[in-house]
Automatic annotation (TrEMBL):
<comment type="similarity">
    <text>Belongs to the ROK (NagC/XylR) family.</text>
</comment>
<keyword id="KW-0862">Zinc</keyword>
<protein>
    <recommendedName>
        <fullName>fructokinase</fullName>
        <ecNumber>2.7.1.4</ecNumber>
    </recommendedName>
</protein>
<dbReference type="GO" id="GO:0005524">
    <property type="term" value="F:ATP binding"/>
</dbReference>
<keyword id="KW-0547">Nucleotide-binding</keyword>
<keyword id="KW-0119">Carbohydrate metabolism</keyword>
<dbReference type="Pfam" id="PF00480">
    <property type="entry name" value="ROK"/>
</dbReference>
<dbReference type="InterPro" id="IPR043129">
    <property type="entry name" value="ATPase_NBD"/>
</dbReference>
<dbReference type="GO" id="GO:0046872">
    <property type="term" value="F:metal ion binding"/>
</dbReference>
<keyword id="KW-0460">Magnesium</keyword>
<keyword id="KW-0808">Transferase</keyword>
<keyword id="KW-0479">Metal-binding</keyword>
<dbReference type="InterPro" id="IPR051804">
    <property type="entry name" value="Carb_Metab_Reg_Kinase/Isom"/>
</dbReference>
<keyword id="KW-0418">Kinase</keyword>
<dbReference type="GO" id="GO:0008865">
    <property type="term" value="F:fructokinase activity"/>
</dbReference>
<dbReference type="InterPro" id="IPR049874">
    <property type="entry name" value="ROK_cs"/>
</dbReference>
<keyword id="KW-0067">ATP-binding</keyword>
Length: 294
């Protein structure tokens, strides 16, 4: 049995599935993200009901993903103060002595979409979630991209349009992608939530422009085979044609993107991308152990 933990800012989802059928989840629970002291006992109690052989954890961040760091496995400088500098991975290891895969929630979602979703059959993809914030995960050559840190591609700088006087919503960068295009930025400009904005409102062309500009940057930087969008804002299906058209205009035939409707796509796993990705990463953790012992 494989275990998965998708740790988000408002809720933590735990799930188990058979190694032979990862997408067929045996049981899952959702726990409000309280303090670690409130939340971890509930996570541990859930997994004690099963004989898990490996656990994949995708966590909100920032997190330390450097195995050589003394704070590897920690949630670090998070605005959720109760979790700041908390040893998430170490706490789990104290109870469950199994292989772990530790990464960000968006990296897990990217891996889930690669293995079982919109990027199945490919080796490279980017997953972007656009909601209260903007986060991104990268998979290259079949592996989650990490180094001394993890990608923060939701905070790349964007060439803000002169016609857009908005100051930007990100407290760190103002006019980064998150600051200009996340849900709060859309709402601040329009004076109402994104889901209440009409499909033909000019706000969506502006949103599409910034997301398309980001896609150009990702294309030039990572050469993905798929760019996959998820999150609450991207449930506005009319955004996708606008993003694709603007993307092709901005790219200006510099690279051969032949079927843009198959290149910039919605997530296939929907709200299950992260938890399925965590299960798939648990499987990767087990495979890594097998490779080292054989």
């Amino acid at each position: 049995m494989l275990g998965a933990i998708e740790a988000g800012g408002t809720k933590i989802v735990c799930a188990v599935a058979s190694k032979n059928s990862i997408t067929q989840i045996v049981e899952r629970i959702s726990i409000p993200t309280g303090t670690p002291q409130e939340t971890l006992p509930k996570i541990i109690a859930f997994f004690k009901n099963y004989e898990v052989e490996g656990i994949g954890i995708g966590s909100f961040g920032p997190i330390d993903v450097d195995p050589n760091s003394p704070t590897y496995g920690f949630i670090t400088n998070t605005p959720k103060l109760a979790w700041k500098n908390f040893d998430f991975l170490g706490t789990m290891k104290q109870t469950f002595d199994v292989p772990y895969f530790w990464t960000t929630d968006v990296n897990a979602a990217a891996f889930g979409e690669l293995k079982y979703g919109a990027a199945t059959g490919n080796e490279n993809c980017i997953y972007i979630t656009v909601g209260t914030g903007i986060g991104g995960g990268v998979v290259l050559n079949g592996k989650v991209m990490e180094g001394k840190g993890h990608p923060e591609i939701g905070h790349i700088y964007i060439n803000q349009l002169a016609s857009d006087p908005f100051e930007g919503h990100c407290p760190y960068h103002k006019n980064c992608l998150e600051g200009l295009a996340a849900g709060p930025a859309i709402e601040a400009r329009a004076g109402k939530p994104a889901q209440n904005i009409a499909a033909d409102d000019p706000a969506w062309k502006l949103e599409a422009h910034y997301l398309a500009e980001a896609c150009v940057n990702y294309t030039l930087s990572f050469s993905p085979e798929k760019i996959i969008f998820g999150g609450g804002v991207m449930k506005q299906a009319h955004l996708f044609p606008l993003i694709r058209d603007k993307f092709m205009e901005l790219l200006n035939n510099y690279l051969p993107i032949k079927q843009v409707d198959q290149y910039i796509v919605p997530c296939a796993l929907q709200d299950n991308a992260g938890i399925v990705g965590c299960l798939a990463l648990a499987e990767e953790a087990l495979k890594s152990i097998d490779r080292r012992t054989n």
